[in-house]
């Protein structure tokens, strides 16, 4: 199974810019859910994050992640995605194997929730990320998001309060600044929940939106989180233009690089905004979804985005 940091070297990731579909474990074309939200199905079909996994498991059946250094790690982001995918596969097939996978990984999240610096309720990633100059333990809004969304579903499936308690605890880093061990940052006058807790805020768009989705998940169970959800929805709506490059979307807003989204992530942004519009009814989300979708159809824009991406990767 190709490592995550090697996945972009596949020729298929370039062919996407020219309208040729490509899918692998790291580039899944998630179909957006059309049925009404019920708290169990995820916001899009994420089953392939479980059914397509061909990597290793540890002795307890927990999926392992191969880092950029070639070593094996537990990636909170990936194992929580695996949990969500397993649950959806269980809902689709009623195969007990997938429910077991789901609850096994949900239990791992319970056992590995901890304190980081002065912040409680975190899940720590321990692998390096060269692109964002991360070389030691770090907390991720995306890891928190997938974990919270997995735990709310474990609660709805089992009615065991231990999963809901852990999901609530996982909200704490959303309210604590990065310096205290949380994932809340400020960039150019706006707040953001940061996927990569770098020295300066990086504000990865797909990670922020996924965190907002997890706020929606828990707010449907515990209404005390509705105000926090509304706050971040408004914050994103007011600042979405910051991720608009005029011909494509930015992957992030980190001051240390100009990182245009790959075709995969640009298309992901479009679908995430469509989901946000469906959840909130806010017209600005559909406005940008349609605008960015139009960028994909413009050959000049897509070629410009590809050349920009290649120039950054070559450097």
Question: Your description of this structure?
Answer:
The chain has one domain (about 5-315): Glycosyltransferase (Alpha/alpha barrel), CATH 1.50.10. Helices cover about 45% and strands about 5% of the residues. It has helices at about 10-15, 50, 75-95, 95-110, 140-160, 160-170, 205-220, 225-240, 265-280, 285-295, 300-315, and strands at about 65, 70-75, 115, 120, 125, 140, 185, 190-195. It has a two-stranded antiparallel sheet. A two-stranded antiparallel sheet has the order 3-4. Helix 3 (about 75-95) packs parallel to helix 5 (about 140-160). The longest helix has 18 residues, at about 75-95. It is globular and about 55 Å long. The model has no long low-confidence stretch (mean pLDDT about 95).
Layout of helices and strands, plus pairs?
Layout: H1 11-15, H2 48-51, E1 65-66, E2 72-73, H3 76-93, H4 96-112, E3 114-116, E4 119-122, E5 124-125, E6 138-139, H5 141-158, H6 161-169, E7 184-187, E8 190-193, H7 205-219, H8 226-239, H9 263-280, H10 283-297, H11 299-314
Antiparallel strand pairs: 1-2, 3-4, 5-6, 7-8
Helix pairs in contact: 3-4, 3-5, 4-5, 5-6, 5-7, 7-8, 7-9, 9-10
């Amino acid at each position: 199974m190709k490592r995550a940091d090697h996945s972009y070297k596949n020729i298929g990731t370039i062919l996407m810019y020219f309208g040729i579909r490509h899918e692998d474990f790291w580039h899944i074309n998630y179909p957006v859910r059309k049925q009404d939200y019920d708290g169990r199905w995820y916001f899009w079909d994420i089953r392939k994050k479980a059914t397509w996994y061909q990597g290793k498991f540890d002795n307890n059946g927990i999926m392992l992640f191969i880092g950029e250094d070639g070593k094996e790690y537990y990636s909170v982001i990936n194992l929580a995605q695996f949990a969500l995918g397993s649950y959806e596969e269980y809902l689709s097939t009623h195969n007990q194997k997938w429910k077991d996978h789901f609850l096994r990984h949900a239990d791992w999240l319970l056992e590995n929730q901890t304190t980081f610096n002065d912040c409680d309720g975190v899940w720590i990633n321990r692998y390096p990320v060269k692109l964002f100059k991360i070389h030691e333990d770090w907390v991720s809004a995306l890891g928190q998001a997938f974990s919270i969304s997995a735990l709310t579903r474990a609660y709805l499936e089992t009615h065991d309060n231990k999963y809901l308690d852990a999901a609530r605890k996982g909200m704490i880093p959303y309210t604590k600044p990065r310096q205290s061990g949380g994932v809340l940052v400020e960039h150019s006058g706006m707040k953001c929940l940061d996927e990569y807790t770098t020295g300066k805020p990086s504000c990865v768009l797909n990670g922020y939106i996924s965190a907002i989705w997890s706020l929606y998940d828990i707010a449907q169970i515990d209404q005390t989180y509705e105000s926090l959800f509304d706050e971040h929805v408004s914050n994103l709506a007011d600042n979405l233009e910051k991720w608009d490059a005029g011909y494509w979307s930015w992957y992030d807003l980190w001051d240390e690089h100009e990182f245009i989204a790959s075709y995969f992530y640009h298309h992901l942004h479009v679908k995430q905004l469509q989901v946000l519009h469906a959840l909130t009814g806010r017209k600005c989300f559909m406005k940008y979804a349609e605008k960015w979708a139009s960028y994909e159809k413009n050959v000049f824009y897509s070629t410009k985005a590809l050349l920009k991406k290649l120039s950054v990767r070559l450097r």
